Amino acid sequence: MLAKTKHHLFPFQLSIKINTERPDFRVVADFLFASDQHNYDSDGNSYPYNSRKWTELELRSRVWDDYGFYLYRKRAKPLIFTICASRKYIAYAIAYFLALETQGQILDKNGNTVKLEHIKNKLKNFQLDRHLSFAKNSIWRKSSDDHSDPN
Fold first, then answer.
1. Dist CA 66 CA 138 (whole Å)
2. Tens digits of per-residue pLDDT, 13-54?
3. Which DSSP string do the residues of 89-130 spell out, in sequence order?
4. What confidence tens digit (pLDDT) does each residue in 85-100 have?
5. Of the candidates 97, 101, 102, 107, which has an alpha carbon nearest to the alpha carbon of residue 69?
6. Complete DSSP assignment for 22-60
7. To 5 degrees, how large is the angle CA 20–CA 7–CA 51?
């Protein structure tokens, strides 16, 4: 399990209820960095790499200072993740992306659903459409148990 003591590195938090399988974690990286060539570190429990059932994930840029997040399972039923990020907009962006990908709901501190439009409004400087487009076309969407590396 990823250490929950990283809060000093990732001070911004959001929760998200997950309703379907997750994307290959490398699609999440492609979304975050809007690149398939970005140099980053990853950690988590995606085994094999193409797993859609991971419950822990950390992505951190090796290029940009203070740019990353980690998430962990807060509750199993219903499946709720806590997202902790180095920057507030990264927490919002990852929550937004995973809500779209998993038909999930972003939750406020009281467990109430936050509308996606509200989160999207907080991402005006993030180039959300560019990041979503990159993730949509990610080669890792083609990964499978038979082909974990579709390159």
1. 24
2. 999 999 999 999 999 999 999 998 999 999 999 999 899 999
3. HHHHHHHHHHHHHHT-EEE-TTSPEEPHHHHHHTTTTTTHHH
4. 999 999 999 999 999 9
5. 97
6. PPPHHHHHHHHHT-SS--EEEEE--SSTT-S---EEEEE
7. 30
Kindly report whether the global pTM for this prediction surpasses the value 0.85.
yes
> What stretch of H or E contains 22?
none
Report CA-CA distances (Å) from 50 to 5, 61, 75, 146: 27, 20, 23, 10
Token digits of residue 106: 């972003």
| DSSP SS3 for 8 | helix
DSSP one-letter code for 83: E
